[in-house]
Design brief:
137 residues, mainly alpha
């Protein structure tokens, strides 16, 4: 596909205000679906558990700006995501949603959700109730 690179993409190579017309391509990371009890499956699982948590790090300087375009949750029509990768994404979705939920609770000064272990337990209980409510809607 046609694409343009700018100074923001490559500040050391492209002068400010200029663009370079080029061709863009997509990349997909694919793994063979090894049997779950195999060493190769365990190796892919180890890679997923090392790579996925670090994606935020790769998307910040000094890493290349193209890392910012990565979407680990993107779907590829006709393909099934490997179980460990999907499980990791599912856990991250819940963790991200829990973080947003806690920020909402603090921002709206929900009574009793101030600080301390008791507040954390109450917030966790409310979040579990929220997830149950969400699943029903």
């Amino acid at each position: 596909m046609p694409a343009k690179l700018t100074h923001e993409d490559y500040p050391e190579m492209i002068p400010e205000g200029q663009t370079v017309e080029t061709i863009a391509d997509s990349a997909v990371m694919i793994s063979y679906n090894w049997p779950k009890d195999s060493e190769r499956y365990r190796r892919v699982d180890t890679f997923i558990n090392a790579f996925f948590p670090r994606i935020d790090e790769f998307q910040r300087p000094p890493y290349h700006v193209k890392w910012r375009e990565i979407n680990l949750a993107a779907k590829l029509e006709g393909w099934t995501r490997l179980e460990p990768a999907q499980a990791r994404l599912d856990r991250n979705d819940v963790a991200d949603e829990h973080t947003r939920f806690e920020a909402y609770m603090r921002a709206h000064h929900v009574p009793g959700i101030e600080a301390g272990p008791q507040a954390t337990a109450q917030s966790d209980r409310l979040f579990e109730e929220f997830l149950k409510w969400k699943a029903g809607h």
